[in-house]
From TrEMBL:
Segments forming domain ATP-sulfurylase PUA-like: 227-380
GO molecular function: adenylylsulfate kinase activity; ATP binding; sulfate adenylyltransferase (ATP) activity
Key word Kinase present: yes
Domain of life: Eukaryota
Keywords: ATP-binding, Kinase, Multifunctional enzyme, Nucleotide-binding, Nucleotidyltransferase, Transferase
GO biological process per UniProt: 3'-phosphoadenosine 5'-phosphosulfate biosynthetic process; sulfate assimilation
Pathway, per record: Sulfur metabolism; sulfate assimilation
Protein name: 3'-phosphoadenosine 5'-phosphosulfate synthase 2a
Record-annotated Sulphate adenylyltransferase catalytic domain positions: 389-612
Amino acid sequence: VDIAHSNGKAFYISGLYILSINVVFQAHHVTRSKRGQVVGTRGGFRGCTVWLTGLSGAGKTTIAFALEEYLVSHGIPCYSLDGDNIRHGLNKNLGFTATDREENIRRIAEVAKLFADAGLVCITSFISPYTKDRDDARKILESAGLPFFEVFINAPLEVCESRDVKGLYKKARAGEIKGFTGIDADYERPEAPELVLKTGEVTVNECIRQVVDLLREQSIVPSGITEEVNELFVPENKLKLVQVDAITLPTISITKLDLQWVQVLAEGWATPLKGFMREREFLQVQHFGNLLDDGTINQSIPIVLPVTTETKQRLDGCAAIALEFQGTLVAILRQPEFYEHRKEERCARQWGTTCPQHPYIKMVMEGGDWLVGGDLEVLDRIRWNDGLDQYRFTPRELKQKFKEMKADAIFAFQLRNPVHNGHALLMQDTKRRLLERGHKRPVLLLHPLGGWTKDDDVPLDWRMKQHAAVLEEGVLDPTSTIVAIFPSPMMYAGPTEVQWHCRARMIAGANFYIVGRDPAGMPHPETKQDIYEPTHGGKVLTMAPGLTSVEIIPFRVAAYNKTKRAMDFYDKDRHAEFEFISGTRMRKLARCGENPPEGFMAPKAWKVLTEYYSSIQKDQ
């Protein structure tokens, strides 16, 4: 090679390096920490390399792409370098001699260093059979101050050969491929990898969990990224000691609404919160709609405990406080912090209105002038003994149910009203679309809100009866549907609240979320017009930070098709065929004991509704 015509660059010719000294390394003006502030949605520099090594067919590519998908969906910038893909471009001039394999790995390590230096988690999936080559790759990364994690994909040769997706083992056995690793070329097993994944024994999801745990332990990814639900119940082996402690502590008497929030926190729906919000968390939520101390975690609504001035004066300075409901100790609040409850500002930010007739705002305004936050230790599972506790599954319990059902897609539907066939149509259509996308076992989480609701909403017990009737009539498939109660109170805070509804279902394992018209909305108490623009909830969800691991299924408008005598997706070009049946009209028909148009609601489900309104009239 004529160096005089090479501009001082370096060339490689199979096994031969031709180098120039006329190359000077140039330092970046942007530091890694500065770059980390703008790369990804969680902030912080996370550059590193996860080096997957193992035999062909061990599962390197499968794990690499699944890990990439998981990290990106959780807001962690990531890129996967695959062995086959690289040989189609950057390394297409390399063969499989020992020398070329060494150069293949060297180049990949240098590319991985650039990706990691840019702040990405770089995943490499290469057989990389030789210890020296892998050690050299580690030196390239670590000499640049970048973490390197060697992950051995340990699958026995017979397992890899039985998979043989590419047919390479068959060709190697037939002598058509020479020097094939594991057949007539050695694979040098890693002696001290950071992680070993036995893909012949555990699932892909379990492998991903182990890698994510490794990255979390090494502070590459925040703890909030993990799927672990943060329950706040006292461990059984410590319960007696904590109960004795609780008896000795000063107490705060909490309301039923407060207890519902204790349940939400205790069961882990608001992971990673450890209790009622202290002022720092409250301010983050009020001003940014996120928790910011462990990455960027969507938390659109404050979860707070209001107390009176007298209570604040009595307990300020205490190291711990017991919470009691109707004479029963339910939890301990550790390291409590009291701060001012600026009610009008809170309402203006959370609801976009301070209308005192708004039902939840009314409760806020009538509540205490102080808020107290702290870490919760909940003594026991919250039970309401209303005949519905069997439907109150925690996020962990729901995840286990999904696992038992072998669900490969979970789509959640939040509701606080009876289900009509328009709702059912949307759920049926979502399932159909998921099946068309290749999912085998999509499961519906029908998840009615079970906390406080305003007085004119249908009560929870009647709604549960109505939902059961819908399933009984086969409008929804009972074999692929889980009906459970979401313990949160309803705040009627529109697009702000719908983010909370979505993220809580994400915590429980949902990866698809159906959003309806005017979610969490209501008419303005004074003007009677919708407080929130009906489509904004769905639009906001598609833009909300921290919800990247759940796909938003937008609400398609359904109306009664007079020609089909069934609920159907509205088509403006056939407007004359459709009739919009309002909630007001539905309630009027039910109160009068009349039937709606055929096909609007399952007959047994409608019967439950008429019985409810009949019971109201009798009470009155």
